[in-house]
Amino acid sequence: MKVARIVVGVGCLFAIAILLSCNSEAPEADVNEPDPVSDSVKITLNLTNKKQEMIGFGGALTWYSNWLTSHNKANEIADLMFTDLGIDIIRFKTWYYPDDYPTNKAVSNMSNTGNNDYAKAHWDATNQLYDLAKERDPSIKILLCSWGPPVSLKSNNSLREGTLKKNANGFMYDEFAEYWNDILEYTPFDPDYISIQNEPTYINSNWTTCQWSIAETSVLPGYNTALNKVYDKIKTRTHVPLLVGPESQDIPTFGPFVNVLKDNSNAAIYGWHPYNVNSTTSASAITSSLKNVGAFSTKPNIMTEFSDNLSWFNTALFIQESLTEANASAYIYWKLMWATPTSGEDAAMISTGSGPTTPYVVTPYYHLIKHFSKNINEGYHRVETTTTTIPESNLVTSAFVSPDEKKATIVVVNNGTSASKVHFVAEGKTAKSIQVVQSKEGSYYQTVSTTSPTKSLSLPAKTITTIVLEF
After folding, report:
1. pLDDT along the chain (471 residues), means of 10
2. When you count CB atoms within 10 A of the terminal residue's CB, does the N or C end of the chain come out lower?
3. C-alpha closest to that of 184 among 220, 213, 142, 224
4. Rounded CA gap, 218 and 155, in Å?
5. Are residues 271 and 393 in the same domain?
């Protein structure tokens, strides 16, 4: 997690003139629909050439979550996040830090101070957010992550920095596994996925961190050993979540960890963060990095945290490549909800202040993620596409088909400097209906009027367009 890690480059931030309010209704765009003609680009979907199965799209609710639950419009915000946005997965942080653990394991007298990350307020808020989400979408999945063990298991007796403590027998792996069993025992819901350590190589003096090596050294505990200890401890529970790892801070760190985890059957899903990518990173370097993730293809992978380093439009391009080059089965945006900044760009999907009546803001990032999350669901498969245009890189496309193959969702980002006419062909299928929404700078998630799935659409330069075909 990067509470304050923002890499700023010359081209990083777009000046966003309009932040849509929570109650605004986007008007339909006025777009002509020429019949497919010689200058209309054909995008073909090969529905039989299936790629990764999707877990879905989502966001994280961690710090500031208590601001959300105490807001006088908490239910309205929850409707946006868990109904309108259509996300499939939420990333929660565990706040299980009982006072005097492990002597005391109860949460009733958990402190609420800066020394323990204001654990009690966030613990209560996380449980409330779980209920709000499940009331609206019973099928939504939960990834529960730890930023580090309690102070009794830390080498420096602090949540910040340090590593796993040693006793006379060496690193306290058994006690660490017991702590994770206690997390699952006392958390009032069953997570679908768990991550034993966020960003295991990263330490920071400003928030909870804990440093690990993939294999044990004289000074650092072994992440792989700890993961196995946790799995062995929890494997007989009634509900056993899948283990996600390593949630590396960047893609260069991902490789050495996954090169070991690929042979560990207890690690079910790879997790990664791409904080080596920012506005100054070249397109070729981004593609190369994501291909390095995709090279580990024996297990699904999830991008579990990223925000702030790219503009909303370039984030769309990055998501597209995460899907097509890294073959990500899920993409979890970091700031589903965050504090409204006092200056600079607001990179949260939804932001607000600490007061219960503080206005909340729905940003372009909300609409960006909605282009993917609303109509690409768990169980969909990404499918191969071909685009008849030169240069093909101007239209960056991903496509997905539902389990029953009665619906296909296509996302096209026009990264060119001029508009393109496009039409779609799904091999072996005849589309009966089409729905289209489009975003561009200052105008987000607008419905595009169209009368037939066989007609061409106009995709203006620097737009994101989602097309839903029903067969």
Report:
1. 40 36 42 60 96 98 97 98 98 97 94 89 98 98 98 97 97 98 98 98 95 98 98 98 98 98 98 98 97 97 98 98 98 98 96 97 98 98 89 86 98 95 95 97 96 91 98 97
2. C
3. 142
4. 13
5. no
CATH code of the domain containing 46: 2.60.40.1180
Among 24, 7, 51, 6, smallest CA distance to 384 is for 51
Do 316 and 410 belong together in one domain?
no
Q: Is 451 exposed, middle or buried (0-12, 13-18, 19+ CB in 10 A)?
A: exposed
> Is residue 438 within 8 Å of residue 467, measured between CB atoms?
no
The model's pTM is: 0.92
Shared domain for 223 and 365, answered yes or no, is yes
When computed from its CA atoms, the radius of gyration of the chain, rounded to whole angstroms, is: 23
Phi and psi (nearest 5°) for 134?
-70, -30
Tally Cβ neighbours within 10 Å of residue 255: 14
Domain CATH for 238: 3.20.20.80
Tokens of 256: 């050495």
Residues 288 and 428 in one domain: no
The span from the CA of 262 to the CA of 298, in Å, is 7
Residues 342 and 408 in one domain: no
Q: What is the pLDDT of residue 451?
A: 80
DSSP notation for 241-281: PEEEEEEESSHHHHHHHHHHHTT-TTEEEEEE--TT--TTS
Domain check: are 296 and 407 in the same one?
A: no
Q: Which residues contact 138 (CB under 8 A, 6 or more apart)?
A: none
Domain count, the chain: 2
Answer whether 421's CB lies under 8 Å from 39's CB.
yes
- On whether residue 342 sits in a domain, the answer given is yes
Together in a domain, 157 and 82: yes
* pLDDT number for residue 39: 80
- Is 53 in contact with 20 (CB distance < 8 Å)? no
Which domain range does residue 69 map to? Answer: 55-378
Write down the pLDDT at residue 391.
Answer: 59
Tell whether 35 is covered by a domain. no
Quick one: pLDDT at residue 73? Answer: 98
Nearest to 91 by CA among 290, 294, 321, 273: 273
Do the beta carbons of residue 96 and residue 102 sit within 8 Å? no
Same domain membership, residue 433 and residue 285? no
The residue assigned the tokens 């929850």 is 78
